[in-house]
Amino acid sequence: MDQLEILERLQKILEEYKKSFEKHYARMQNKLIGSLQEAYEKYGNNLSEYRKYNRLQALIKQIDSISSTEYKKLLEEAVAMQEEAFNITYLLYTYLVYMYLSGEEGKLLNITSATAGTSAAIAIIYWLLMNRKRLLTDFLKEESYEISLRFNKHKDDFVYSVFMDTQDKLKAEADFTATSKQVKKRTQSAKNNGLKRLQEMFNNTVNYVQDKMYDALKGKVDGVEKMWISMRDMQVRHAHRILDSKFADEEGYFHYLGEKAKRPKLWLDPSMNYGCRCKIILLFGGRIPMFSRIYDYQDPQYQIKLADRIDELLPNKTYLQALKQAQDEIRPPKRTVPYITFEDWLEQYGEKS
Asked: In 232-319, which ranges are E strands?
């Protein structure tokens, strides 16, 4: 297991919530169109009746009621996604730390004897596990106000847009087909924005967990590093292209033109945060921690070859893309190494539930 597998597992969680989001938007669209159809069937061609003030007020209340119901569910699911992503990310990275400390490459600072080292390693794992719920509570509290504010604003903007579109169509004597088509366009746009917001929340959650994990391990475990990863596509801003594959300093900050931030979306300059899709990943001793039962991914010669190949690929790929290709091309030596599955490890440390 390594960060790539962790991200793949987490991505599956996100995809499930995206599917649920799409269902909520589809249901909201069907309810809105259903209410419009009822009105058109009731008033027929006499749209002037529909345009009367009291009827328009009833319309906006109906639109708001339908939208509020679905947006409340969307908000609840978004928070549930954050909580699930937080817990899984935290436990997977704690497991990764455990595997690293269990191997020969895992060195604890200021620890000399093997017995003391083992005890300290176990203490670190237990400390991480005991602090998970506290950090989750702090994270959700930190995020709750902004999330609630943004979802409510999103809902209000959607209601206003649908109402104004419908009112304009009625003034133009448009038929039901034309009006419902416009409602579908608005709902599709709202869905795209909602899915984008869900992705941002997911990225923020994963980055937050890794940043806190880094802070907890720095100074206790030798060689812990934090790397900035950009998407490196045509949408990535120049500043984040420069930051790609860069390491944080000793205090955990990334630097750009005199500004600093501990993780994506924490820059003082808003232009560095808006629409950011970047991630951070943790490395140990400059290496990607990867473990399996058969292959020795921490073999020094394998790691050197892997690092050299990644450097060759980086000019044209993101770090994670380069890592995946390098791992596909270069195979580690087969060797029996200490190994425990993530599921067995959860049960061993009482986190199975």
From this structure: 254-256, 259-261, 279-284
